[in-house]
Specification:
Strand order of the largest sheet: 4-3-2-1-5
Number of strands: 5
Radius of gyration: 31 Å
């Protein structure tokens, strides 16, 4: 399967990425079919030198069935070469995991407690009504005998 993905270059703690078309079985920084752009995450987002893409070649490879990775899809979406991916927004990610569990367990009973109590109130009269009907039905059977 063909992938549009990032291949890491640069030095230690100074990454520079190439946007490449490669077979998914090839190593990340290994063999690739074609280089179609670059990405320098160290530059500010406002600088146009941060990302360089060959739009025509990328469109060609997307037409051939190449699938972009999530990071490359986001880069392509920002440059309007394909629609922005829908996923990727997780507001819970900033909250530590142990705090997420505490908040989730506290909020869930509060939200579910009111509907559950109402449901029990509605079920209780129905259950009592069924109990009352049962003796009446038995009484009618006894009268027939």
């Amino acid at each position: 399967m063909l992938k549009l993905r990032l291949s890491r270059g640069g030095t230690k703690k100074r990454p520079v990425y190439k946007v490449v078309v490669a077979d998914s079985r090839f190593a990340r920084d290994g063999r690739f079919i074609e280089k179609v752009g670059f990405f320098n995450p160290l530059l500010p987002k406002e600088k146009k030198e941060r990302i360089g893409l060959e739009a025509e070649r990328i469109k060609y490879w997307l037409g051939q069935g190449a699938q972009p990775t999530t990071r490359v899809a986001r880069i392509l979406g920002e440059n309007e070469l394909m629609p922005m991916p829908a996923n990727g927004n997780n507001p819970q990610k900033a909250i530590p995991k142990k705090d997420r569990k505490k908040e989730g367990s506290e909020e869930a009973p509060k939200a579910d407690a009111a509907p559950a109590a109402e449901a029990k109130k509605e079920e209780a009269p129905k259950a009592e009504a069924k109990k009352e009907e049962a003796p009446k039905a038995e009484a009618k059977k006894e009268e027939k005998k």
